[in-house]
């Protein structure tokens, strides 16, 4: 009996080889990743992260300290305007009633004879001295205390001192005993907010001019 050989026998053998080659090509195409590709990708991600994360942290710190400085500057400006508009003496105290907090307060006594409440430890307490005040009775001061303000918890106050604004707009330094007899220096004093090595200074001079550096 004669064996018949198909004229396409070579093609039949070649087809599985071509199919295997196509599979290999597919595995190496852009639709898939080899182990080497994955190692390279992970290495690149790790390198970029090592560069980007500290930069993002520095950016976040800069934003936080900038916002804190603007908040302090705004509060000082508003305290000065309130003193002029109401003909009352206003003071801004820092780290009061707690760290990273500050508040504008109406002077109850006088610059030379402050009331005991003006230097009391709870003077910034919003419960004892609420905002807004219960009434506007001139006999039951204070009436003009502002709300307690807070800066970002990542930021701290550095150099601080209580700043007093008179109805003339002039700024005074407040002594430890609560008296205020001397204007601020002509070149001003600085209130600083800090985060790590970053520092911003809010300067107030004797004329009540307020600026940030």
Descriptive account of the structure:
By secondary structure, the chain is α+β, with helices and mostly antiparallel strands. It has one domain: minor pseudopilin epsh domain (minor pseudopilin epsh fold, 3-Layer(bab) Sandwich), CATH 3.55.40. Helix content is 33%, strand content 19%. It is built from 2 helices and 10 strands. Strands 3-2-1-5-6-7 form a 6-stranded antiparallel beta sheet, covered by helices on one side. Strands 4-8-9-10 form a 4-stranded antiparallel beta sheet, with helices on one face. The protein is elongated and about 85 Å long. The model has no long low-confidence stretch (mean pLDDT 86).
Strand content: 15-25%
| Shape call | elongated
Mean pLDDT: 86
Q: For the record, what CATH class applies?
A: Alpha Beta
Structure, briefly:
Helix content is 33%, strand content 19%.
Keywords:
four-stranded antiparallel beta sheet, single chain, 33% helix, alpha+beta, 19% strand, elongated, 2 helices, six-stranded antiparallel beta sheet, minor pseudopilin epsh fold, 213 residues
List the helices and strands and how they pair.
Layout: H1 9-27, H2 35-86, E1 90-94, E2 101-106, E3 149-150, E4 156-157, E5 163-165, E6 171-173, E7 182-183, E8 189-195, E9 198-204, E10 210-212
Antiparallel strand pairs: 1-2, 1-5, 2-3, 4-8, 5-6, 6-7, 8-9, 9-10
């Amino acid at each position: 009996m004669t064996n018949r050989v198909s004229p396409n026998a070579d093609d039949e053998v070649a087809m599985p080889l071509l199919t295997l080659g196509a599979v290999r090509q597919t595995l190496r195409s852009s639709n898939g990743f080899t182990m080497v590709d994955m190692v390279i990708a992970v290495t690149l991600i790790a390198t970029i992260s090592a560069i980007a994360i500290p930069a993002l942290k520095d950016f976040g710190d800069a934003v936080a300290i900038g916002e804190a400085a603007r908040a302090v500057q705004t509060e000082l400006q508003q305290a000065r305007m309130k003193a002029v508009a109401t003909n009352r003496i206003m003071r801004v105290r820092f780290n009061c009633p707690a760290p990273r907090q500050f508040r504008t307060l109406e002077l109850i006594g006088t610059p030379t004879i402050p009331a005991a409440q003006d230097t009391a430890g709870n003077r910034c307490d919003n419960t004892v001295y609420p905002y807004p005040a219960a009434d506007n009775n001139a006999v039951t001061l204070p009436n003009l205390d502002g709300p307690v303000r807070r800066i970002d918890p990542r930021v701290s106050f550095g150099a601080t001192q209580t700043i007093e604004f008179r109805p003339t707009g002039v700024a005074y330094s407040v002594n430890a005993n609560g008296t205020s007899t001397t204007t601020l220096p002509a070149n001003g004093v600085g209130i600083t907010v800090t985060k790590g090595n970053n520092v911003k200074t809010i300067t107030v001079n004797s004329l009540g001019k307020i600026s940030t550096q």
